[in-house]
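Key result, reporting period 2: structure in, sequence out.
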């Protein structure tokens, strides 16, 4: 299951995460976002070393704006505190796992 956590600073979360951080920008009303939730659970089961964090764009619009999120769902992959990949829309679990394996 994807991690739900409170944080004091999104930048602190990004910079303090070792390895790959997958950030799921979503909204509770977004149907495709709900589809991604199950896919991310599957990815989390397969790739324990990848940290997955969900950001509700309705609750944190400033973070969404900062990262230029224009469609939902959007996944942003960070490594060493830097964004290295972006996926907009729904992606199959096996395809996401392949992309993560390529950068992990």
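The corresponding designed sequence is given below.
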């Amino acid at each position: 299951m994807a991690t739900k956590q409170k944080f004091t600073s999104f930048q602190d979360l990004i910079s303090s995460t070792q390895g790959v951080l997958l950030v799921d920008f979503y909204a509770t009303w977004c149907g495709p976002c709900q589809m991604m939730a199950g896919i991310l659970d599957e990815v989390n089961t397969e790739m324990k070393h990848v940290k997955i964090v969900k950001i509700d764009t309705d609750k944190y619009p400033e973070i969404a704006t900062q990262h230029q999120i224009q469609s939902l769902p959007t996944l942003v992959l960070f490594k060493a505190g830097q964004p290295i990949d972006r996926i907009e829309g729904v992606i199959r679990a096996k395809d996401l796992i392949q992309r993560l394996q390529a950068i992990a």
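The longest helix spans residues 31-46. Strands lie at 20-26, 51-56, 74-79, 82-88. This case is discussed further under Risks and Mitigation.
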